[in-house]
Amino acid sequence: MEVILLERVEKLGGIGDVVKVKNGFARNYLLPNKKALRANDANRKVFESNRARIEEDNANRRSDAEKSATGVDGKTVQLIRQASNTGQLYGSVSARDIVEALEGAGAKVTKSQIVLDRPIKAIGVHDVKVALHPEVAVTVKVNVARSPEEADLQAQGVDVLAQMFERDAAPAAEELAPVEEETSAEEAATEAAAPEPAEEAEAEAEAPAAATEAPADEDQPQA
């Protein structure tokens, strides 16, 4: 379907552009949200006769969004959620959760302005885009953690998951250490008990000599 854009749409175009889009995208998003008109002769005339007003309205909304951006851009919000030892959340963080957290921090935005491709499902500090206007976007940080203390560590740049894995791996390494030492001690004892090659050769040489001398002593007359 061909449509006439009434505002800038990311990856499509700007005001007045005629673009071809999938029917579902047009019917479910562009047309009901008044972001576009069907590209027919009647709508082309309507658009051209109202173009100046449409562009003026867009400029005013962009100006308001730029003013609002100063109170939103760079904001950090904290969300405490339950999660497994691997950092996977029991549930997820949605756009609505982020809106409520931002409102609590004094930044008013709407759910439709949160650009979240998919819900957040792991702890960590996530960058989230907020589109205040088709031409004005800012970024906020969403710090998802299992406790306020963990959130503070993540805010300082600490990789909580990596730290946790290292801590869990330490006891396992300590348990293996005594086994290695015991094995080394057994090997040392075995090596100490084993005769040297030179000593083995001397013992082998003395054995035949002793066997030869023994009969000579038996032939001597007793006193």
Per the CATH scheme, the topology name of the domain at 77-163 is Ribosomal Protein L9, domain 2
Tally the helices.
6
Percent of residues in β-strands:
15-25%
Count every beta strand, where a strand is a DSSP E run of 2 or more residues.
9
Structural class: alpha+beta
Looking at the overall shape, the CATH architecture of the domain at 77-163 is: Roll
Strand order, biggest sheet? 4-9-8-6
Report the biggest beta sheet as strand number plus sense, adding barrel if it closes. 4 strands, mixed
Q: What is the CA-atom radius of gyration, in angstroms?
A: 40 Å
Provide the CATH top-level class of the domain at 77-163: Alpha Beta
Shape: elongated
Provide the residue-averaged pLDDT: 84
Helical content class:
40-55%
The CATH homologous superfamily of the domain at 77-163 is called Ribosomal protein L9, C-terminal domain
User: Spans with pLDDT under 50 lasting ≥5 residues?
Assistant: none
The topology string of helices and strands comes to EEHEHEEHEEEEHHH
Straight-line N-to-C gap: 134 Å
Describe, in plain words, how this protein is organized in 3D.
There is one protein chain. This protein is 50% helix and 21% strand. Among the domains are: 2-69, Ribosomal protein L9, N-terminal domain (Ribosomal Protein L9, domain 1), CATH 3.40.5.10; 77-163, Ribosomal Protein L9, domain 2 (Roll), CATH 3.10.430. The chain starts with a strand and ends with a helix. The protein has a four-stranded mixed sheet, with helices on both faces. Strands 2-1-3 form a three-stranded antiparallel sheet, with helices on one face. It has a two-stranded antiparallel ribbon with strand order 5-7. The longest helix is centred in the C-terminal third of the chain and has 34 residues, at 160-193. A hairpin with a 2-residue loop joins strand 8 and strand 9 (136-145). The model has no long low-confidence stretch (mean pLDDT 84). It is built from six helices and nine strands; from the N terminus they run E-E-H-E-H-E-E-H-E-E-E-E-H-H-H.
